[in-house]
Design a protein that fits this description.
Blueprint lengths: L10 H8 L3 H7 L3 H20 L8 H19 L1 H9 L11 H16 L8 H21 L6 H20 L1
Helix pairs in contact: 3-6, 4-8, 5-7, 6-7, 7-8
Length: 171
Amino acid sequence: MKTNGFDSITIEQISEAADVSVGAFYHHFGSKNEILNEIFKRGDDYFCKNVMSRLAGETTAEKIVSFFSHYAKFNIDWGVDYVSALFKTQSSTLASSNRLMFTALRDLISESVESGELTSHMTPEEITELLFTTARGLTYNWCLCNGGFPLEEKMRQYMNFHVTALYAIGH
């Protein structure tokens, strides 16, 4: 998919690359689009197991910026064509607030609110939604520009803006 793009790859090519029959593919997936849900799950698992424990920074604000820096790197590693395909799907999983990636960040923000580090008129869920909406929008724009700008650098800039505003409003 990374090489040929999601739209142009066939079930037969996927099955051949995975060394399984087309029937075995359909035993596990109803369609090519269902593979994307598995990819979302793997992304969530990666963030929960590998990213959350390694977030850089002393404050929650710094950890949020670090989180989205990892998010940008993750998308860069997958590539523009592949990430573009994720945005083209009709899967509601991409924007689901039940995803592990979303809940892990929300829990980090909740801890910050409970400790008094962050005070806001927004709930942790609303803050998390705002940040993910920004990250997805920036990533989508990166796809539209065919990777024509440094996603990680822009992501840090946008997230620094948001967390600075969140902390300024609360204090």
